TrEMBL record:
This is Aminopeptidase N. Belongs to the peptidase M1 family. InterPro entries: Aminopeptidase_N-like_N (IPR045357), Aminopeptidase_N-like_N_sf (IPR042097), PepN_Ig-like_sf (IPR038438), Peptidase_M1 (IPR001930), Peptidase_M1_dom (IPR014782), Peptidase_M1_pepN (IPR012779), Peptidase_M1_pepN_C (IPR024601), Peptidase_M1_pepN_C_sf (IPR037144). It is an enzyme of class 3 (hydrolase). Its EC number is 3.4.11.2. It comes from the Bacteria. NCBIfam families: pepN_proteo. Residues 105-209 form the Aminopeptidase N-like N-terminal domain. CDD domains: M1_APN. It catalyses: Release of an N-terminal amino acid, Xaa-|-Yaa- from a peptide, amide or arylamide. Xaa is preferably Ala, but may be most amino acids including Pro (slow action). When a terminal hydrophobic residue is followed by a prolyl residue, the two may be released as an intact Xaa-Pro dipeptide.
């Protein structure tokens, strides 16, 4: 029996270990089992003899007993796929070590020692892309969360902080650039062509923040002078052919550094900041100290190859990783259950930054849309977990929308309740108090309480209770008084039932029906199951605008007259609330339609109201186009499906698709003239001209309506837009519309796009995605053909996602009645799991929705999950997600 050592059971103590793990039943790790590690590792020296197929690693760890932990007569070092070549203690070779599961155990008396371990790894064979791996002839690392143990034996847990010194060498022609964390101490080339470099990072850090890069790279370099006058060299490292697409990333880095000084008082703490772009990467980017490693997708951009959305995403991710230098690196996490401590907080920080850079209204709407598309379904499904989970089998499965995006919303609520100034006092205290430590979510909340002077006792439930709270709102009017009655309910989630009422901060405003104005926004705190609030001075029942700015991550349920929503969609002075009114209007209508509970009169009334609201949005001259583009967007099918499947009901994806497309066609037909007028206006806004971004957004939005009502005209307009495009936003938008049409222009332009951008991986990814996401009736066949395309490659995560993640999100093709779409995704999971388990496991949630779907499809989805579960050898990642989805 293997005894699995974990951060919580570091010594692999059998009493603490769970019931015997089998290959199919990886052990469950519990937050409550956390114990500090028995040893401190004040210093770590690493030596690398680099080669693509074979790299030799020698690690020297100085260790001493941890006074905060129980003494132990041995040290357990985590490994993964390692075998020690040699082990020395205090300079003497020892043979008394043993291997337990994947870990190395060395007997050790309870005093200071120096441990030296040599291992050898094969970076080219590392298709998991965790640890040290080869990508395009270069070497790079990804260590979060538990990748460092694939490089060498180490206490690979975030609460063991060490000062790292690194020496590396390798063929200079192959690896002219050698990078590591911190500062370069020395470098050179020997007479026989071996390049070498020594690096030192003065800041103690956990192993997950280690990084090393070796390759043939060039840098776009710049400088930034910090608020205290430290001059920092900035480098964006890429392959020679990508250098011309790095200016935006460099500029984004400068802006992030400046903003974090101004808004959070955070200054950078090294003389060097390196960012390296790699094309094979599991995630978006990684905040390794002084040496961020990025997916090329979040670095490279120019007008011909990147959309406005790509530009914004790059700015946001560069900021996110930079902000981690404080929220994550200077103050890190005690254990992985605390992941939201750094991720939720850092997402909030990057959102606030992007609001300042890109405009608050639109950014807030985009962030809420992401939350609803990714986090709400998670919170209402089998994988629901609190932002601070209580247990896991594989931590990689917990890099979720809940930990990241809901985590950000939770901290945003604190900020909303205490205001910006006191929030800043709280974050100042947090950074000050915990600098250099591995902290917990509780530490953060406590620092907020002390620094911002607020009681967060009940608020802490947001960290422990999963599920999206439902708030019911109703207005009762009598005389000149209106009572706003609020009720909340937190739904049951796996392992959690009978929940306590949460603290829900709701920004509200009441519009006077006669004047069309409100007399100020108020913040109401709903902290009981039911609570009423009285408002006086209204002759007639007022119009309620609630959860303005999306002040709380909840669903609001209310019975509201359609006309009130039409009024708010046209007049609400809170941009988010205005967007929300339009969404509510459409959601209410489509949900009823999909449930087949609309009478003919109701259908007509609903359609009329939506058309009237949309007409007002198109005509509103005070509205800027970026906001108009948001207001024009219909709720996604994913979100509609969630709403139809509320309260245990099931949804028919086919019906939802039909109803939504039907509404688009109806709006396209009824608003044909204003849509054409607006298209003509925005088509004349020059790229790079004033208001161009909004214009581009509206342009493609218009085309989606025309495509539904008048495909021939849409094909013509889209083909022209494609041909005349002088930027990727326009070109991609046009191609997106064409992809959904059964028209010869579709084939022409797809071919043109492919030939034009052949060899540019990020743009070819778009080409795959547009086809996989399209509403074309043959999309499923297209996807099957694309999987056989010579440019398709299971080993590159971006390419896999570009085809299959897009397909799994295709509301129509994924759900074809035969179940073929489900089979395709299950086959992919099985094929990808042995290559890259982390990426394979990310596809499981698409099938895990089966409980929300009508019985026939539901059964097909469930049986695909069962087929996966039966597979002979499943990774821990995929096993965990499938098991939870079937439970
Ligand atoms: N800390 C990184 C970020 O959010 C993500 C790393 C994810 N790694 C993983 N193995 N899931 O910026
Ligand atoms: Zn992060």
């Amino acid at each position: 029996m293997d005894i699995v050592a974990t951060p919580n059971n570091p010594e692999g103590n059998p009493e603490l270990a769970d019931a015997a793990p089998t290959p199919h039943e990886p052990a469950i790790i519990y937050r409550k089992d956390y114990r500090p590690f028995a040893w401190l590792v004040p210093e770590t020296k690493l030596d690398f003899e680099l080669g693509l197929d074979s790299t030799k690693v020698t690690a020297i760890l100085s260790v001493e007993p941890n006074p905060q932990a129980e003494a132990s007569g041995r040290i357990r070092l985590n490994g993964d796929g390692q075998a020690p070549l040699s082990v020395k203690v205090d300079g003497e070779a020892v043979n008394s070590w043993s291997v337990d599961g994947e870990d190395l155990i060395i007997p050790l008396s309870a005093e200071s020692h120096e441990i030296e371990i040599a291992t050898q790894i094969d970076p080219s064979a590392n298709t998991q892309l965790e640890g040290l791996y080869a990508s395009n002839g270069m070497l790079c690392t990804q260590c979060e969360a538990e990748g460092f143990r694939r490089i060498t034996y180490f206490p690979d847990r975030p609460d063991v902080l060490s000062i790292f010194s690194v020496s590396m060498r390798g063929p200079a022609d192959q690896f002219p650039v050698l990078l590591c964390n911190g500062n370069e101490v020395a470098r050179g080339t020997t007479d026989d062509g071996i390049g070498w470099a020594d690096w030192h990072d003065p800041w103690p850090k956990p192993s997950y923040l280690f990084a090393l890069v070796a390759g043939n790279l060039v840098a776009n370099s710049g400088t930034f002078t910090t608020m205290n006058g430290r001059e920092v060299t900035l480098n964006i490292w890429v392959r020679q052919e990508d250098l011309s697409r790095t200016d935006h990333a460099l500029e984004s880095l400068r802006k992030s550094m400046k903003w974090d000084e101004e808004v959070f008082g955070r200054e950078y703490d090294l003389d060097l900041y390196n960012i390296v772009a790699v094309s094979d990467f599991n995630m978006g980017a990684m905040e390794n100290k002084g040496l961020n490693v990025f997916n090329t997708k979040y670095v490279l951009a120019d007008e011909d190859t990147a959309t406005d959305a790509d530009y914004d995403a790059i700015e946001g991710v560069i900021a996110h990783e930079y902000f981690h230098n404080w929220s994550g690196n200077r103050v890190t996490c005690r254990d992985w259950f605390q992941l939201s401590l750094k991720e939720g907080f850092t997402v909030l920080r990057d959102q606030l930054f992007s609001q300042d850079m890109q405009g608050e209204a639109v950014k807030r709407i985009e962030d809420v849309r992401i939350l609803r598309a990714a986090q709400f379904p998670e919170d209402s499904g089998p994988l629901a977990h609190p932002i601070r989970p209580d247990s896991y089998r594989e931590i990689s499965n917990f890099y979720t929308a809940t930990v990241y995006n809901k985590g950000a919303e939770v901290i945003r609520m604190i900020r909303t309740m205490v205001g910006e100034a006191r929030f800043r006092q709280g974050t100042d205290l947090y950074f000050d108090r915990h600098d250099g430590e591995a902290a917990t979510c509780e530490d953060f909340v406590k620092a907020m309480e002390d620094g911002a002077e607020v009681d967060l006792s009940q608020f802490r439930l947001w960290y422990s209770q999963a599920g999206t709270p439902k708030v019911e709102a109703s207005l009762l009017h009598s005389g000149d008084t209106t009572l706003l009655a609020l009720k909340q309910e937190v739904p049951d989630t796996p392992g959690q039932s009978r929940k306590q009422p949460m603290v829900v901060p709701l920004k509200v405003a009441l519009f006077d029906r006669d004047t069309g104005k409100h007399s100020g926004e108020q913040l109401l705190i709903l902290d009981e199951a039911q609570k009423g609030f009285n408002f006086t001075g209204f002759d007639k029942p007022p119009i309620l605008s609630i959860n303005r700015g999306f002040s709380a991550p909840v669903t609001i349920q209310r019975d509201v007259p359609r006309d009130d929503l039409v009024f708010l969609a046209a007049n609400d002075d809170d941009s988010f609330a205005r967007y929300e009114a339009m969404q509510e209007l459409v959601v209410g209508h489509l949900v009823a339609a999909a449930r087949d509970s609309l009478s003919d009169t109701e259908r007509t009334a609903g359609e009329d109201a939506i058309a009237q609201a949309m007409r007002a949005i198109l005509a509103d001259e005070a509205l800027d186009d970026a906001m108009r583009g948001e207001l024009m967007m219909l709720p996604s099918q994913t979100y509609l499906l969630e709403q139809v499947a509320r309260d245990g009901a099931t949804a028919d994806p086919g019906t939802i698709h039909e109803q939504r497309e039907g509404l688009k066609a109806l709006l396209g037909a009824r608003l044909a003239q204003p849509l054409r007028d607006i298209y003509e206006r925005v088509a004349n806004v020059p790229f790079n001209g004033e208001g161009a971004r909004g214009a581009l957004k509206v342009k493609t939005q218009v085309l989606t309506y025309v495509a539904a009502s008048d495909p021939e005209t849409a094909a013509e307009l889209a083909a022209r837009q494609y041909d005349q495009a002088d930027n990727m936003t326009d070109r991609q938008g046009a191609l997106m519309v064409l992809c959904g049409l059964d028209h010869p222009e579709r084939t022409h332009k797809l071919l043109d796009f492919y030939t034009r951008y052949r060899g540019n991986a990020l743009v070819i990814d778009k080409w795959f995605t547009l086809q996989a996401l399209s509403l074309h009736p043959d999309a499923l066949e297209h996807v099957k053909a694309l999987a056989e395309h010579p440019d398709f490659n299971l080993k590159n995560p971006n390419r896999v996602r570009s085809l299959y993640m897009a397909f799994a999100g295709n509301p129509y093709a994924f759900h074809v009645e035969s179940g073929e779409g489900y089979r395709l995704i299950a086959d992919l999971i099985l094929a990808l799991d042995p290559i890259n388990p982390q990426t394979a496991a990310r596809f499981v949630p698409s099938l895990g929705k089966w409980r929300k779907i009508e019985p026939n499809r539901s059964e097909l989805m469930r049986s695909e999950l069962e087929r996966i579960r039966e597979a002979a050898k499943l990774s821990r990642d995929t096993y965990e997600q499938v098991a939870r989805s079937l439970d």
